[in-house]
Design brief:
alpha+beta; Molybdenum Cofactor Biosythetic Enzyme, Chain A; Molybdopterin biosynthesis moeA protein, domain 3; 4 domains; 7 helices; 27 strands; transferase; EC 2.10.1.1; Molybdopterin molybdenumtransferase; magnesium; molybdenum cofactor biosynthesis
């Protein structure tokens, strides 16, 4: 059995970036990272653009101007302005080449075909210059940039419709157990509703990993070997829930040995999630998570999350850890470090009741895990504790 820090180090040292590109339509590329620098095909803005509603003027020494026309957003014609002439103009419209400033409409008095501006203004005032954001051929966004909604809008504004992005991993979730049935079916004696697969699927979707295949296998050794082989062969990362302990019908460990999965660690000194397995077969990473739902999800956030970030070439591998003040107390049983479910808010954290590894109700209310080291037997009210912020 190894320590938590040793297990985290092993996961970090055995991860690898996929470094594969895939082409995505920009509007469907949210959450992906750019595989290469993206060059702009146009100047942005593509013309001198009015920054506001007002009047574009050809400056002269007087404050009075003759109004000679109007330019709306989308107008393609040009108006020639002589000194002392102006046009009505609207936000986003193309500023005539012969205009050299825009005065906002709130500082202009109109009198028929004449206007008077409130004060002299500098050259290019309220004009967005050609290529202010990016010039044609310039780098619009650099390799590795995460595509947020703003980034997607920016690329589309440049007329870009497809971009190469880092391919996200193919992920398998394998559930094991004769006792499991799908929600919606009548609950017969000895059966429980299977929730781990969809719970982990939801966690992956929340992190924007969508290439996920679900597998289910009964407690049968031959079927377990066959199912795990397919999952490992077809995916970059495999999560197995249940069947990793040492019961008579826990076949996962033996099956992984038969499949020649290299065991990197098995069992971590922690609570919940002691029977955690991590291994590799070629480039596929394999996590066998505990069957208890809260333990499985805790291990996902502490360990699997790191592997996922590594696959995506991200620098921040672990979830954020911060210090917070406990607003209630907790007494730890045993000598294992523990991850407690809690609610973090503005520098304070509440330790919730119901910390059993099989209970999801408490986890459902949580937005954080509180780490209790092995040497700390009790958390008292107002103690400073380490909090892992969950991505929910």
């Amino acid at each position: 059995m190894i320590t938590i820090s040793e297990a985290i180090t092993i996961v970090k040292n055995n991860g690898h970036p996929l470094q594969q590109a895939t082409l995505k339509k920009v509007e469907k590329a949210g959450g992906y990272q750019l595989f290469e620098d993206i060059l702009s095909p146009i100047n942005m803005p593509p013309f001198r653009q009015s920054a506001m509603d007002g009047y574009a003027v050809h400056l002269h020494d007087d404050l009075d101007y003759e109004l000679v026309g109007e330019v709306k957003a989308g107008d393609g014609h040009t108006i020639e302005l002589n000194k002392g002439e102006a046009v009505r103009i609207f936000t986003g419209a193309a500023v005539p080449d012969t205009a050299n400033a825009v005065m906002m409409q709130e500082k202009v008095e109109t009198n028929g075909q004449n206007i008077t501006i409130a004060n002299q203004i500098p050259l290019e005032h309220n004009i967005r210059p050609l290529g202010e954001q990016v010039n044609s051929g310039g780098i619009a966004l650099k390799k590795g940039t995460k595509l947020t909604p703003a980034a997607i809008g920016y690329l589309l504004s440049l007329g870009i419709t497809e971009v190469p992005v880092f391919k996200k991993p193919n992920i398998a979730i394998v559930t094991t157990g004769n006792e499991l049935i799908a929600p919606g079916q009548p609950l017969s004696p000895g059966k429980i509703y299977e929730s781990n697969s969809k719970m982990l699927l939801a966690a992956l979707y929340n992190l924007k990993f969508y290439d996920v295949t679900l597998y289910n296998v009964e407690d049968d050794y031959g079927k377990t070997v066959k199912t795990l082989k397919k999952a490992i062969d077809d995916n970059d990362l495999v999560m197995i829930t249940g069947g990793i302990s040492v019961g008579d019908y826990d076949f996962v460990g033996t099956a992984l040995k038969e499949l020649k999965v290299d065991e990197l660690f098995y069992k971590v000194k922690q609570k919940p999630g002691k029977p955690l397995f991590f291994g590799k077969k070629d480039d596929t990473q394999v996590f066998a998570l505990p069957g208890n739902p809260a333990a499985a999800l805790s291990c996902f956030y502490v360990y699997v999350y790191i592997a996922l970030q590594h696959l995506m070439s991200r620098e921040d591998l672990e979830l954020p850890r911060i210090k917070a003040k406990a607003i209630n107390s907790f007494e730890k049983k045993g000598d294992r470090p523990q991850f407690l479910k809690g609610i973090y808010n503005n520098g304070n954290v509440e330790i919730l009741d119901g910390q059993n590894s099989s209970m999801l109700q408490t986890f459902a209310l949580s937005n954080a895990l509180i780490f209790v080291p092995a040497e700390v037997p009790k958390i008292n009210n107002n103690d400073t504790v380490e909090v892992i912020q969950l991505p929910i």
